[in-house]
Amino acid sequence: MPQDQTKTYQAKVFVTLKPSILDPQGRTVERSLSHLGQQVSGVRVGKYIELQLEGERGEVESRLKDMAENVLSNPVMENVRWELEEAALEPA
Amino acid sequence: MPQDQTKTYQAKVFVTLKPSILDPQGRTVERSLSHLGQQVSGVRVGKYIELQLEGERGEVESRLKDMAENVLSNPVMENVRWELEEAALEPA
């Protein structure tokens, strides 16, 4: 059975305001778009964070969960989700 | 052949700084994580925007492309990509 290997992983973290929290930035974008003739609704502005981690898959997943929930987002006001994939090898 | 129908679509827009642009916010996050004992690299902080549009699929796609490229992002400094899907029906 192959041993779990240390690899470089690319993580993508999506932080969004909870639906019950007002989003003034989103409202502003919505009004600006409306003034430009673009009718849209429900604009919510969140954060999209990319980062790289090294380690074994399970350990990296657990570190990413910890960072996403406790550092990159505010659990009182925000929801967070993330994706993890092996980083593409850099061209030499 | 079914006619193209007016529907509500949910759009997700991802705005990231171009790789050549320095990201001081990302550097700060990286240092903060390092002080907390989390070694990560290549932290980049972008925006994640959700919005809803109504219309026919083709027209909505073209409006979204216009908004994403010309309003929601700055083409000089940022890259932008987006996803579009039919919005789930709200429970009555």
Describe the global form of chain A.
elongated
Q: What is the helix content of chain A?
A: 25-40%
Mind describing the biggest β-sheet of chain A? 3 strands, antiparallel
Largest interface: A-B, 31 and 31 residues
Overall tally of domains of chain A:
1
Cα radius of gyration of chain A in angstroms:
18 Å
**Uncertain residue ranges of chain A:** none
Strand order of the main beta sheet of chain A, please?
2-1-3
Q: For this structure, what is the CATH class of chain A?
A: Alpha Beta
What does this structure look like?
Two copies of one chain form a homodimer. Chain A is of the alpha+beta class and 92 residues long. The first copy, chain A, has one domain (7-86): Phosphoribosylformylglycinamidine synthase subunit PurS (Mth169, Chain: A). The first copy, chain A, has two helices and three strands. Chain A is elongated, with a radius of gyration of 18 Å. Chain A starts with 6 loop residues before the first strand and ends in a 6-residue tail after the last strand. The mean pLDDT of chain A is 92. Chains A and B meet through strand 1, helix 1, strand 2 and helix 2 of A and strand 1, helix 1, strand 2 and helix 2 of B.
Give the gist of this structure.
Two copies of one chain form a homodimer. Chain A contains two helices and three strands, in the order E-H-E-H-E. Chain A has helices at residues 24-35, 57-70, and strands spanning 7-17, 41-55, 78-86.
